[in-house]
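Lab channel / #folding
Pinned by the channel admin:
"Please post every new chain as: sequence first, then the structure tokens as a reply. Keep commentary short and put observations after the output so the thread stays searchable."

First post following the new format, from NK:
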Amino acid sequence: MLLLILGSIMGASALFNDCLLGPKNPILPSEASLVLRAQINASLAMHNIPIKLANMEKAFAASDWDKFAIVAGTKDFSITTILDTNVEDGSYIHFSYALGGNNFGSVHLEGHVQPVITVWDGNWAILRGAKIQSELICLQDAEFAGNCVSEERNKATPIPSDASSMLKAQINESLVKNVFWYDPEVTKDITKAFTATSWESFAQFVGTQDFYVIPLVDNDDKTTFVRLSYAMGDNDVGSVFLSNQVEEVANIQDGDWSLVGSTITEKTMNCLDSSAYFN
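Reply from TO:
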């Protein structure tokens, strides 16, 4: 089952340092193979979480991984697959769970019971004697980046005149926040800008060096976002919105992302940030 999932993530996951992150919790506990069950057992045992056989059978009968965690004695439990495209034997499974307020877990080569990486209090380390071809930073950064993907810039809205009323309102909000000379009350060119036949021409009307509309998707919960990106001098600025809302959830200044409000978490913002490289 997981082999099929690893094979399918090539076209549907976040690419970061040539490592691909698959979907979170791709199977249910009851669908876990004998090898996967043994891997989970080895991971929990490594962190001194002994589970009696009877309880383990009950855990794997759970309807989801949250209920599995209750039986296993962790605060949560998740599985992700990671594929390192640089090496021949680069298919991994990452188990992640919280103990107290800290993140623990392990990483295993596909089909191998014993872990090659331990995760202790959020810190990743290759285990002594582990045979692993991948760079630790590649695997760790793929997990940090999260399961967010960006679509091709300006693909969903190829020309400004196709912009929906929601997108127009989002663009107006972003320009008000980021372009100090832009004032929708006195800038008469904004209506004309939305008649432009390209986003390059749109940029000339509103006074930026370029302008891009980039749809983003968090594949863990299928939430969709819109990133507006444009250059001011040598600096990349812009905004991120939920697709159906006018209020910013993140602001971008000189390439640095910062949260606006509490609509999304910092982890989600990092996920979107890491996926948002131009295709």
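NK: The chain has two domains: 2-146, 150-275.
TO: also worth noting, Confidence is low (pLDDT under 50) at residues 3-16.
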